[in-house]
Amino acid sequence: MSATTTASPQELAAHGDTGTALRFITCGSVDDGKSTLIGRLLVDSKTVLQDQLAGVQRGGETDLALLTDGLSAEREQGITIDVAYRYFSTAKRKFIIGDAPGHEQYTRNMVTAASAADAAVVLVDATKLAWAAEVEDGTVVKRELLPQTRRHSLLCHLLRVQSIVFAVNKLDAIDDAGLAFERISAALNAFAEAAGVQVAAIVPISALKGWNVATRHADWVGYEGPSLLELLEELPVTAQDEAVPFAFPVQWVEKFSASADTSQGRRVFWGRVASGHVEPGQRVTVLPSNQTATVAQVLSHTRQPKSVHAGHSAGIVLDREVDVSRGDWLLAPEAFEPVREITATVAWLDDEPLVAGRVYWALQGHRWVKAKVARIVDRVNITTLESEPATQLEANAIGDVVLALQQPLAVLPFTQSRALGSLVLVDTASHKTAAAVLVQPAAAKA
Amino acid sequence: MNARTETELLQPPMHSPARLSNTHLDALEEETVFILREVAAAFERPTLLFSGGKDSLVLLKCAEKAFGAGRIPYPLLMIDTGHNFPEVTDYRDQRAKELGAELIVRSVEDSMKRGTVRLAHPGESRNAHQSVTLLEAIEEFRFDALIGGARRDEEKARAKERIFSHRDSFGQWQPKDQRPELWTLFNTRLAPGEHFRVFPISNWTELDVWQYIEREHVGLPSIYYTHKREVVERRGLLVPVTGLTPARDGETVQVRDVRFRTVGDITTTCPVESLAADAGDVVLETLSVDVSERGATRMDDMTSEASMEKRKKDGYF
Fold first, then answer.
1. Tens digit of pLDDT for each residue in B37-73?
2. Is the Cβ pair B187, A431 closer than 8 Å?
C-alpha cells in the first residue's frame, strides 16, 4: 500500500485525532536544498502520490525540488519564489510545511511563512562554507555563514518562532564530513549566541540521499541524535502568551433583530481572543470609547455558550449598550495604557524603501490607523549584528523605528504578546503590505 | 454587512451532535469560521462561490456555524457551464433553499450568446471559459470578495496561494508578486475594480474534508458515493459516458461501481472505482489512495504541467 501515511488506515482511523499539527517552515540560503528536503520528507513519509511523482521525473531522474516549486516561473528558473504549503502526516503527527524561498529578493515570502510557524528548519549547505581552512596568518579563520542563513535565523528569532533547528545539508558530498559537521556546528552556535537565537538542535543530513531525514543514518559524522523527522514529531506547538490580561479585538459586530429585551446589549461582538480568557461576569473596558461594561454571555466560535481562551474565536454579549464597532478592543480594565507612539523593530518587505516622515496604514488586530514614521532609530547589519545609523530601510532590511499613531493603541512588547505586539504597515498608495512591525518595550531605545 | 440574528439562535441547541475528540478538525473549523467572519466584516459586497461540490458544502457548513442557519450574510454564486451532473445542481438548489440563502447563477452559455466566450470548436470543454463568465458576474454585481473552496493540497499552483489573494482590475492573479500575509493581520485594502479571492479551507486536506463530512454529517450529492455508471477507459481515467461525453469508436462501454472524488464540469470530471457507501468508507479509502484527487479525476489538469496556474492567472477560481 502506498498510502498518505506510514500508519495503517485502521490504525489512523482508530486514532482519528492525530494530535495538534505542527506548522514548520524550511528556510536558509538559495540552493541549500530546502525544496529537496521537503520532497524527501514527502516521499519518505509516503505522502507523494504516484501521479505527483511521475510529474517530477526528468529523463529517468526524480527531481524532488519540483514537488514544491509549483509556479512555472519557478521551474523555469530553478528557484523558489513563493511559499508552497504542503501537508503530510506520520503515525504520530500531522504537519503543515511552508517551503520558504531562499533568495533575498523574496524575503517577504519567507516572513509570511515564518509568521505562522511553530518551528523553523534552517538549511545550511556544508559545501558552500570554508570549513576546511584552519589558520591564516596565525589566527583561526572565522567561519562565515551565508548572509541568508543569518538573516533567516534572525527573522525566525525576532518573529518568535518557537523552535529553530539547523540542518547541515550535503554532508554526503564532503570527504571529512565529521570534521565539517563539527566546525559548522561550532560556527552556528557562535552565531546563535551572538544573536541571542535559541537553537533547538543541529542535525547533519543529506536531503538528496535521505540520511537523517526520516530515518537515522547510523555511525555518521559522530551524530547520535534523532532524525530530523523524529525531532519534528516531538517539537511543541507555539504556546499562548501567559500572564497577559484579557484583550479582544472586535472583528465583526452582529446585531440581533426584533428583540425587545433591553436588559443586555443587543449585539454580539465576534473576534479571536488575543490574550487571557473571557467568561460571563467579567468587566471590560472598550478602546477607544473608554466605556466599561460587564460580559453577559460568551459564545464559542460555533455559537455555543462557553468561556473562551486566547487563540480561539468568541462572541461576546455585554450587559448594556455601549459604543463598540469593528476595530475596537475589549480590554481588561486598567490593564493597558494606550499609547500614541511606539518603538518597534520592523522587517521591511516592500520594494519601495521605508522613509522617515512618511505616513502608512498600520493594522493592529482589526483596527486600521495612520502611522507616521517619526524617525528611524537604526538598522541591523546582518553580518556583524551591529546596529548602524540609517536614513531609510530598503527591502529586506531589519531596523528599529519610532511610529507616531493617529489614534492610541493598546500595545505590549512583541516578546510579551504576539497579538498585542504585532502590526503590519501598508503602503497608502500601492496598498501593498510593506512591513512586519514588532513592538519593543517603550523605554528600550531612547 | 452585519447580519441579523434572533436572540433564540444564541441558545444552545437541544441536541448537540455527538463529538469525537478531534482537535485538528476543531482547529481547522475555527480558522475557517474566523476567515468567513473577516470577509463579512471587511468587504462591502462579498459572495461565496457555491458549486454543490463537497468543498463548497463544507464551506457552507462552516458558514452556517459562523452566522447561524438562515443568516449567512452573503449571496451564493454559481458559474454554470451548462454541463453539470443533475444530482449536483439539484443538491445545490436544495441546500441553498434550506439555508435561506440567495443563489445567483450565471452561465457560460449566456457569455457565449453575448459573444464574450468563443469556443474553438463546438466540442471544446467550457471549463476554462468559466473565468470569463465569472469576471462578468464580478463586474455585474461589483463583488469585492469571492470566497472559494480551493485547498492548497489539491494542486501545486494552489499550494502557493495566500488565503486573502489579491486580484487586479483584470481579475488576474500575480503569483510572482503576492502580498505578504503576516499572522492573521489580513491586508484587505483594494483599489476600485480590484477584488479578493478568499480561501477559508486552504489548510484542509482531502482527508480532513472527508473526516469533517463524516463528523458533521454534511450531506452531499449522491454521486460522491458508490453507484453504477457507464464508463470507458481512456488514458488511465474512467470517463463517464453521457450525452456530452459519448464513447469513442473502438472504446468499450462498461458498467462499473464508481464514485466521484471531485465534481465539476461533466466534460472534465471522471469518477474512480469505489464501493464506498458513506463518508466513513471514503475516509478509509482516502487513507490508502495512491493517486491524487485531481490526478485521478481531472482531464483539464493533465493538459500541461502549469494548466491550473495558467487558468488561475486568467481569473479562474
1. 999 999 999 999 998 999 999 999 999 999 987 889 9
2. yes
For residue B104, pLDDT over 90 is answered with yes
Q: Determine how many CB atoms are found less than 10 A away from the CB of residue A429.
A: 9
**Which residues have CB under 8 Å from B241's CB, separation 6+?**
B229, B230, B231, B232, B247, B253
Kindly determine whether residue A109 and residue B178, on different chains, have CB atoms separated by under 8 Å. Answer: yes
Coil, strand or helix at B8: helix
What's domain B22-208+306-313's architecture?
3-Layer(aba) Sandwich (3.40)
pLDDT in tens, B111-166: 989 889 888 888 787 888 888 999 999 999 999 999 999 999 888 888 889 999 99
List all residues of chain A from 63 to 82 with a beta carbon under 8 Å from chain B.
67-73, 75, 81-82
Task: Give the integer Cα–Cα distance in Å for B158 and B173.
Answer: 11
Q: Would you say the CATH fold of A339-439 matches that of A247-331?
A: yes
Probe site for chain B from A71, A349, A427 (most B CB atoms < 10 A):
A71
Class of domain A247-331: mainly beta
Q: Do A297 and B37 touch (CB under 8 A)?
A: no
CB atoms under 10 Å from CB of B124, counted, come to 12
Verify whether the Cβ–Cβ distance B290 to A2 is below 8 Å: yes
All three cell numbers of B100: 435561506
Residues of A within 8 A of B311 (CB-CB) are none
- Domain spans in chain B, listed from the N-terminal domain onward: 22-208+306-313, 222-301
Q: Say which residues have a Cβ less than 8 Å from residue B194's Cβ, sequence separation at least 6.
A: B144, B166, B167, B168, B169
What's the pTM?
0.90
Mean pLDDT calculated for residue range A344-371: 96
Q: Is residue A265 over pLDDT 90?
A: no
Contact flag B202-A82 (C-beta cutoff 8 Å): no
Q: How far is Cα of residue A233 from the mean position of the Cα atoms in its chain?
A: 18
CATH class name, domain A20-234: alpha beta
Of the pLDDT bands very low, low, confident and very high (cuts 50, 70, 90), residue B20 is: very low
Residue position matching grid coordinates 457555491 = B50
